[in-house]
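Two proteins follow. First one:
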Amino acid sequence: MSLRFFIKTYGCQMNERDSEASATALLNAGYEAVKSEKDADILIFNTCSVRDQAERKAVGKIGIMKKIKRRKPDLIIGVVGCMAQNKKEKLFEELPHIDFILGTDQLHTLVDTVKREEIARAKCIKTEFDSSDDALEGMDGHLILYPENGDEISKIFKGNSSSAFVSLMRGCNRFCSYCIVPYVRGREKSRKTESILQECRMLADKGIKELMLLGQNVAAYGYPTGQLTPVRDESPFAELLKEICKIDGIERIRFTSPHPACFNDKLIYAIGELEKICDNVHLPLQSGSNSILDAMGRGYTSEEYLNIVKKLKACRTGITFSTDIIVGFPGETEKDFEATRNVMETVGFDNAFIFKFSPRTGTKAAEKEDNIPQKVKEERNALLLKVLKKTTAEHNSRLVGTTQNILVEGISKRNSERWYGRTTTNKVTVFTPYAGITPGDIINVTIDRATEMTLFGSVLNKD
């Protein structure tokens, strides 16, 4: 009987994609995937170090497993991902019941590591976290959703088989002062174009309609080593988007997260011209204050950010934006905060991930005095959420009475008699299904009503 595995994922979509790739590799090696940790013989925690909260959640959960392992001593417990890369052997000191730890560049060794544990049940740790080109090539192969397992993996991680993640690159060269990513995922390493296109074609052959292209700084795809900003009329990412758009069967393309400093006119116009690119761009702002942006090491001003938004709106009707924002960065004055609120109101974001600053050990910002009181951080966070709530409510109300193109994802989690999907602007839309509907269908829905978070509508036709 084959051993059964369960992967618990924390953090970003890059981690979700790594979990998919890891699960595929384990399935191909003969292991069985289960949907509950209590049914597993192998528990793998794919961890995140970007936010302190995600790290604490993972450590807490893994700590609980100590009691489980006492009752089930043959249970194999592994930790992979950013926290594994960041803390390395320190995790064994904190959590001695862990069987193995693999950093972000060693995921391609996961199957061999699990096999060794299966045979020996011995403690092992990779003290060398390889970031060589050979490691990248190994990663490249495992990142493909192999045809025989694609449907099963999609159901385990996403609940439907209409969309899939495709990783374009690893790492980041930006070294923003608050961010741990370059230290745990290394420098930018882009996959070969043909490898990416091959994976996209395979996914299309499996019936995938929507791709989410991933990279810590996806707009820097294909940049030569050491390059931080685009050459005036060159954008390898724009060229890649054009090639993916040519693939039959792929109807929608999303991407995250691009750095504003990597947007030039070639990329902007490609987004405006390519119909398969979805009408929502995630464009991290972080702050609307130029002094704070400079302290963060972001490499652009609020005026430059707003100019990118202006150009994108001019070349693509109906485009919307989501963003990331940090409040309470060291030294943030009331004037700095108001600058952020002004940019939020000017852009009119459809969604925003707003975080209260917390220092990450090992980053430049952690060396600064965390001099903004927690109460002030919470107040500023609440004020920005209020701005976002008002904006999204206004946007959604304007959609009532319109017809939206919806990619069907599946049965609503709150009402089994309804289904849901997403618009090209990534808005969740709930509707009453018709006979024979399946995830991956693209349908037209007339919006009857809207809340701040969700659209509700009626199916107009089945085309």
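Second one, unrelated to the first:
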Amino acid sequence: MEALPYFTAVTALAVVLQTAILAALYFSVKTTTEKQKRSVEDMRRQVEPILGRVQSLLDDLQPRVSAMVANATEVTELARGQAYKVDRVFTEAVDRLRIQVLRADQMLTGFLETIEQTGTELKSTVWEPVRQASAMISGVKAGLEFFRGQRRETSARTRSSSDEELFI
């Protein structure tokens, strides 16, 4: 038991040392906290006017921004309506153009069919009789040439026989 007073003294010294360290930490934290409070207070004093100006700017700009958004919405709606109208006009124009092209195609087809029929009629009414008349004229011509050819042959034979008689 002789060591008990030493242990008590060491324990008491350790408790006093811990108390001193805790007191030093307390004062250190207290000064740091006061410095931070002062820094925060200084910062707040500097930031409050800026925040006040920003708030007043936002208050001034809020109606303008709302008006701009409303105007943009209105412009978008008007543009959409105009786009629908333009689309409808172009669609109608294309439909009308398609109808006109079909009409022109029908007219051209009818015109070409009429020309073809006219050509066929002309061929059968004019060219066929002309060919028949030409064939008839050619036949008459051939007949006349045939008869002329026989007379010439006969007269040529007669001449040649009389020439032969004279020659002998």
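SUMMARY FIELD: The radius of gyration is 65 Å. The first helix runs from residue 4 to 167.
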